[in-house]
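Hi W.,

Here's what went into the run:
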Amino acid sequence: MSKKTTIYDLAKRLGISPATVSRSLNDHPSISGKTKKKVLEAAKETGYRINKFASNLSLQKSNTIGVIVPRLNSDFMSTVLSGIETIANNAGYNLVISQSLEQEEKEKFNTKTLFESGVDALLVSLANETMNYDHFSIFTDRKIPLLFFDRVIDLPNCPTIIIDNEAAGYQATEHLIQQGCKHIIHVSSGLNRSVYKLRYAGYRKALKENENNFRERVIQVDNFSPPEAKKVIDFIKTSVHPIDGIFVSSDSLAVYIIKELRSNGYQVPNDIKVVGFNNDPVAQVITPELSTIEYPGYKMGKLAGQSILSHLSGSINIETADQIILKHRLIIRESSQK
Amino acid sequence: MSKKTTIYDLAKRLGISPATVSRSLNDHPSISGKTKKKVLEAAKETGYRINKFASNLSLQKSNTIGVIVPRLNSDFMSTVLSGIETIANNAGYNLVISQSLEQEEKEKFNTKTLFESGVDALLVSLANETMNYDHFSIFTDRKIPLLFFDRVIDLPNCPTIIIDNEAAGYQATEHLIQQGCKHIIHVSSGLNRSVYKLRYAGYRKALKENENNFRERVIQVDNFSPPEAKKVIDFIKTSVHPIDGIFVSSDSLAVYIIKELRSNGYQVPNDIKVVGFNNDPVAQVITPELSTIEYPGYKMGKLAGQSILSHLSGSINIETADQIILKHRLIIRESSQK
DNA sequence: GTAATTTATGTAACCGGTTGCGTAATTGGT
DNA sequence: ACCAATTACGCAACCGGTTACATAAATTAC
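Here's what came out:
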């Protein structure tokens, strides 16, 4: 009971070889039915448990998938993770999850750690800070499946799962324009990450196309925490042109901006219209309810999991890098309607 | 570059034994400085990486901690996980995270999987469904550290980390009473989990002590998702006594109840006062802002991590089961003030 | 009834580190 | 220069499965 039994114990007990025990436990075709039964019974009786350490060493695989995310405690990320976990768990894979906390150094460290711990594949959503991608070469060099989701970078043979951020940014801005906004600002963070850069590009495109002399203006925040809302309000208060529209790259920040606007005497949506991003739960809790871009986190997670699993099972040619673009959707609520 | 080098390769290359290489890499005291240097250099040159599979097998430890949570995508849980991850990662441990989705079967399966995958310790927050705890005996039998947090159960030698839910429930209810509420209901889920049972007990205690003939009434919901709010509203609308106070075991549900109340013509807090639980971000986003119990998730995660690490390092006597009770705090906001 | 197959099991090497024990090499003391 | 005490390193077993290959047993074929 307290002592662990090995296949050698079982072999001795049954007077057969460890190889036969191993094959029986793995339901190998060349073992007779009765022997298998005997082994299974003995295994049950003795409380035998496979030693994955030994199995992993022998098979050179861990049935484990590594994940690196910027942070665990964001509604979007935890939803994606939930999707990944569901798929992975169902397929018998464990998930080793670590967070980079937006730091390049931590991301590097985690990449190395996960590599050494022998994950069979790695899923990554990049840190804002990360500018160099060499740390992923230990995976790509050895053809270990590597996939990026949401915060992606284009590396050879690495699938990516994203939404069309540029189109989303365009639609959000276009919507504000159609609602009559003349001076729309964009609030974003870390423009070196493509997600944000593309939303910004979409914003600019929409402004350009609508031959107004709107001046584009990005307020870059350090992160999407509540205090950053103040920076936006400060800008608005001191702006020469009266700001009447805000496209924020994050719902969580958007709601704080709305609160801050209201406490500064601005009416939303009358004075200023706001569109967020993500469709976080808070979007439907704030008054007025927040217009936003629906971002299919759970689906993204499931697809990321499925994609990497099919790579692992070899049913997809690893050399064929693919890109999956999920549908997003502009959800119009009160915060942006005239 | 593409071929992995082993300590045997290094040994051959340097004309020394694998044992010396191993000891050098582990900075063993009985190896001379020059040899160590030689080995380290050769390791760098050849791009040597330790094979954790082999190391784990030999050492019978994985530097991995398993975690089972009801679900990943809840603000509270992901915050706890973030705390655990920070501590674990810092100490060189990986985190294998899985979710039970509130199902006893999945919890059992995950427990078994994590055991077999050789985690050095297990952290668990129980599923609502779970009624039987035998599946944890594989851990307790073999003295593998097992710790419960938040949704706990008292098992021999298993530390727990919680808050004083009864006191919190008491305070929340008492506060409502002091604000003049005469008919307070409690909204909760799965009363077989101690967290919820204790909050309920606190609620009852507060009612009893205030010698009114308040009748206690629990509305039990299946989960804390938005649709469940309707059940609560239905009860309130058909109640003989006019309900004027609600203590909800979850902020996320509380905000939907408030929204639903408002759209049914009730004024919060004038007609009905509401207190939630958790201090989720939504609590400050809803209008009126939600009074709630602050629940220190990040700290809970960090403590869970630290506690289990000290068990692993042996600095705490494993036989001494401890219980850590974190401080909670009633945060009074608009939703409950007269 | 014997050879040709097919089926069932055993042998032994391998996966790549780790470590107790023994020995050779170096240092130190006098 | 000689013996003792350190110090540095090698040998070999071990961790527990997995699997190619060999071999023995059971079937089938003629």
